[in-house]
Amino acid sequence: MNNQANIMIPQHVIEDATEWAIMHGVAFRQADNTARHCPFSIAPMTMKREVYEHLRKVTPLITKLISNLSEDHDYLQSSLQDMAKADPFFGRLLALHQQAHYDKKQGKTDKRLNPARTPLLLMRTDFMDDREHGAKVIEFNGIAAGMAPFGQRATEFHAFMANQWPAVYRTWAATSSENSSKNSSKNSPATPAENQGLEQLAYGIAQAAKKVQATFTTDTPQAKPTFLMVIQDNEDNVYDQHLLEIALQKNGLRTVRRTFEQLSTQLTTGENQRLMLAGVGAIDVVYLRAGYQYSDYYSPKRNESVCCQTLSQTRLFIEQHHVAMNATIGQQLATSKTIQMLLTIMPAEDYLRWGLTLEEALLVKSVLAEMKPVNESTITWFNTQADKQQWVLKNQGEGGGHCIFGDDISDKLNQLNPTEYDAWALMLRLHPHERETPTIAVRDGQQTQIDDLVSEIGLFTAYYNGEPVTEYKGYAGYLIRSKPASENEGGIHSGKGILDSLALID
């Protein structure tokens, strides 16, 4: 990494770029209510067109699989019992799932219940294009799968740079010869990949909202479908959320925001299991941008014998009403690392249980990286035979900070109590192509040259009640996050990641 890059791009260009980002909402809110621009690259990363097209084809199939699996409640209950004992948070989720879907009488579960909610799966599937194995899934994100607005804005930002500062853009943009064969024509520009992540996610949500509202004849004809976003208190990643809300408003929806704490006293049941919000009225769509960690359900005001009981029951209350909902408890369970591991281990033929053809199942299999459960046998194998640099140890946590690499894995495995094993999984470590063309990263208004940038691509999809609800057969755009190859944590919000976009090479 070269820290002498402050003279490489004129400061007035950097200021223009950062002001564009702030003006277009590509920012985090600060504690004093000012805004700080997201870190970004000055020009896009590249990917072979055939790799991108393969991911475009396979990702909606992954969402179809997860959508159907998330409604297979017996499978979720039986498959996740051990993991739920090892991970208290998922233990809480599985207990909520049982409350939602099973009638418990005389100390045993017997009759299946059908909560009124309709599943709306807004999913981001994250990939890395490994140098040896090709593009592989890192993880499924089925709850709080945000940043589609930022993904689209990054594509728009690089188009702005190409038009406004073409000489700077050409200097740092990769050409079609990068990652390509020696026979490729040199210095021809790579083609930016279209990205309508913001519009398509809003379109899919709006379709679901209108379908829910149409089932209620008691609504006044002029009432707008209403979208409820469940948020964390005092969070800083709000502009991405507001960009989505603005797009939904353009689609004819009314949008409101509440925390679980607020909802615990503001929700009631209307006629025909309609979900009612005090001061607002009927709710058609509920979208959780909170709920993936214990702290989202914790209230210091409440003295509870069971941690987070009240606010997690609020989530269950929502599921018992006629709303389109993301994420359902089943969706969150189905996108856990344990289910990802089980899907990786099982034969493709088993996917037919969840509505895929064998051809579709094999396509999904083609992008799943090897995973192993943590048990006495795999710990012995890892400590005595494995190439430790080729594996990563993951727990069930969402977002950054939940992965352990290299020699640190043995230390962690040796610290684990056997009762904790099922909360963890080993996964083949992915080593993506490094960008051959150096780039400029801009963070807090300062530029830095990065010579070894690697990228992660997240593809968004939207399915309502098991069916695609975008104009691209379920696909809804992408998010690129890049980081120096030497850094383990690549999150934009927490980590060394920068916002990026995608250009295609043939």
UniProtKB/TrEMBL annotation:
It comes from the Bacteria. Keywords: ATP-binding, Glutathione biosynthesis, Ligase, Magnesium, Metal-binding, Nucleotide-binding. GO terms for cellular component: cytosol. The keyword Nucleotide-binding applies. InterPro entries: Glutathione_synthase, Glutathione_synthase_a-hlx, Glutathione_synthase_C_euk, Glutathione_synthase_N_euk, GSH-S_sub-bd_sf, GSH_synth_subst-bd, PreATP-grasp_dom_sf. Belongs to the eukaryotic GSH synthase family. This is glutathione synthase.
